[in-house]
Amino acid sequence: MATRKNTTDDPLAPLTLAVGQEDLLLDRAVREVVAAARAADPDTDVRDLNPEQLQPGTLAELTSPSLFSERKVLVVRNAQDLSADTVKDVKAYLASPDEDVVLVLLHAGGAKGKGLLDAARKAGAREIACPKMAKAADRLAFVRGEFRTAGRSATPEACQALVDAIGSDLRELASAVAQLCADVEGTIDEAVVGRYYTGRAEASSFTVADRAVEGRAAEALEALRWSLATGVAPVLITSALAQAVRAIGKLASAPRGARPGDLARDLGMPPWKIDRVRQQMRGWSADGVADALRAVAEADAGVKGGGDDPEYALEKAVVAVARAARPRRPAY
Fold first, then answer.
1. 0.85 exceeded by pTM
2. Contact 72/101 with Cβ under 8 angstroms?
């Protein structure tokens, strides 16, 4: 049997503590430990347990020496829900863990079960953070990390497009990255993501908005009709149009010569978006931004019950935005 390393980065450390509520990350933490254990000992006995299965005395039984000296991995899910008596058993075990046992505690974090959380940390647990990724920026960082882990190159625009297309489900995001890596050679760019996920609501609506603010009316209308045909809600399209026009207005009013990093921080945009909006804003004027925002507001009212034909309201807004993007007035 392989000798366990004495480092907190070692998946075969006596105790791994996975903290958070993101199921994908929790499952990955478990798989990493199990894979390492079975690489060291193919006969490793793995037990995946919930709080109901861990009664007082059960842990002592499971961690008792095996007749065949086999390695064990004990996974305890929802450790914050363990009974008070079982928590006492776990704390007692942590004081003197068995060298052939790897204990993995999955804890949601927070106040419930905090005593066990503190005890595990005090015992020197190898800790893995598995937080819910509620912010789009966190999901974007996750996608970038997935591509890096796969050893593949993806442009910032492609990563953002994937997040826009898939949404907040980390499992779907991870699956999408894996599919793209398997199917596509070379650098993965925004066009590739668009080909794979063009039917997604968010991707479709942002495509309409991008083409419109670039003054490409025909392409914007084509994207609009495709979006509506695939079931995209009209309110998503007006929202995307409003975001795109506002971004141009924000960047146009920013100090000239400011660095992209400073602009990204001040305007609340990722650096890659600063570059894209700079390209899109050519030909725009202050009056153009105002005209476009009024057109989008009218369309928004139309699709929310203020008009008889939501599709016509959207087409009218798309054409108005595209016209506003043309260099008919002095640029900023």
1. no
2. yes
Alpha carbons 10 and 3: distance in angstroms, whole number: 11
Residue 19 CA, chain-centre distance (Å), reads 17
Token pair for 98? 């068995």
Tokens of 288: 């153009």
| Runs of H (alpha helix) within 167-233 | 170-183, 190-197, 201-213, 217-229
- Helices and strands (H, E) in the chain, number of each type: 15, 5
| Count of other CB atoms within 10 angstroms of residue 216 | 15
The predicted-structure confidence for 126-172, as pLDDT tens digits, reads as follows: 999 999 887 888 899 999 999 999 999 999 989 988 887 777 778 88
DSSP for 41-72, please give it: -TT-EEEEE-GGG--TTHHHHHTSPPTT---E
Determine how many CB atoms are found less than 10 A away from the CB of residue 297: 14
**What is the rounded CA–CA span in Å between residue 129 and residue 276?**
33
Measured distance CA(208)–CA(170) in Å, rounded:
25
What 8-state DSSP symbol labels residue 130?
E
Q: In residues, how long is the chain?
A: 332
User: How many other C-beta atoms lie within 10 A of the C-beta of residue 184?
Assistant: 17
